[in-house]
Amino acid sequence: MKKVVVVYIDAGEGHWAAATALAEGIRLQNKAWRVELINADEVLQPADPTFWFLGVRTNYIYNWLVGRDLIIATRQLIPILHFLFRIFHPVMVFLFRRCWRRLDPDLVVSVAPHRNRALYESLRKEKPHIPFVTILTDLADYPPRFWIEREQQQHFICGTAMALQQAERIAPLAERIWPVSGMVVHPRFYETRSVDRTEERRKLGLDPDLPTGLVLYGGYGSRAMLKIAERIAEAAIPLQVIVLCGRNAALVRTLRSLSLPNRMHVQGFTENVAYFMALSDFLIGKPGPGGISEALAMRLPVIVNNSWTTMVHERFNVRWIEEQGVGMAIKRIQDLPRAIEQLLEPANYSAMRRRIDALNNRAVFEIPSVLEQILGARSISTLP
Description:
Blueprint: E1 2-8, H1 14-28, E2 33-39, H2 40-43, H3 49-54, H4 58-67, H5 74-87, H6 89-103, E3 107-110, H7 116-126, E4 132-135, E5 155-158, H8 161-170, E6 176-179, H9 197-203, E7 212-216, H10 224-235, E8 240-244, H11 249-256, E9 264-267, H12 273-278, E10 282-285, H13 289-297, E11 302-305, H14 315-324, E12 327-330, H15 336-344, H16 346-359, H17 363-381
C-alpha cells in the first residue's frame, strides 16, 4: 500500500483544515493509499526559538496574536520570518530528513507555506526519487518564497488562474503545474443537506424568517467580531447573526455577556461549520481563503474586511471576490450595515448566487486523481 504524507502547520486552522479535507477526499475515492498527516511545527520544534525560551511553538504565539487583532505590518514581518528560516535552514533539513527516514513515504504533499524549500531539499537528500507536491491553499502566492520556490523540480497544484500564472512564471524547473477548480474544501461542505432551517434556527434562539449573517474570522476568532455585532445593533437593521468564535474562549464570554437588540447565537470552537452555514444567508469575515471557499461551496455570498490590518498575503483574495462578483469588501466596520443592505437587495443577492454556482469548485475531488497520476508516473520511472 502506498503511503502519502501530507504536511501542514498550526498557523490558524486553514492548513489543518486543508490537510484533513484532502485526506477525506482520498478516502471517499477509495484510493489504496495510507494517508498520514504530519504537523511541520511539531517536527521542527527543536529548531523553534520561541519554544526554547517560552516553552510554546511560534505558531501558538501567532494564533494568540491573531485572535486579539495584534498581527499588523505583515509586509514587513514576512521578510523577517524568511530570514529566520534561512538561518535555521540546515537544521530544518536535518529534522525533516529524520522524519522521512521514519515515515518512508511514497509521496509527500505540502499544504504549508514558507517551509517548502526545506521540505524539498530534505526529501531530495534522503529519498531522491519520491515526488514532492505543493498545494497552494491561498488564492495566489505572495512571492518570493511564500509558496512557490523557483529552483525546485516538483509539482504544484493551483486553484486559481492567478496562482497558475505565478507558478508558470516563478518555477521554470517545476516537473508539472496542475490546475484545479479552486481551494481544497472538506467534502462535508458539498453534502446535500435536508436541514429544516425554520426548526434549527429556532433551536438556536433565532427568528426563522429574518436574514441571517454568519460571522467567521478563522479558527481563533477576532475582536473585530465584537465590533461587528455592536455595529449591526447600532444600525438597527432587521438582521440576526451566528458568530463562530473558534478557540477564542474569552471572545465567547464577552459576546455572550452583551445585551443587544438583535438576536445572536454565539458558538465556540466547532467542527460543524457546515451546519451553521446551512442556516445562514451570507458570510461576514476576514478574506481568508478557507472561510471564503467554504462559504462559496455552500452558496453564501461574502462580505470581507479590506483594511490596513488585512494580512498582506490575503489582499488578493479581496480583489478576487470583487472580480468574481461573489461578494463585497468594506474598509471600515462602520460601512458594514450599508454593505449588508446592498448585498441583500433581491437582484444583487440572486446575481451573486448565480455567479457562485458558476464557480463550481471541485478541487478536493480533483486532487486525488492528480496525485494518482503523479504516483503512477513515479512508478513507471522507477521500473528497471
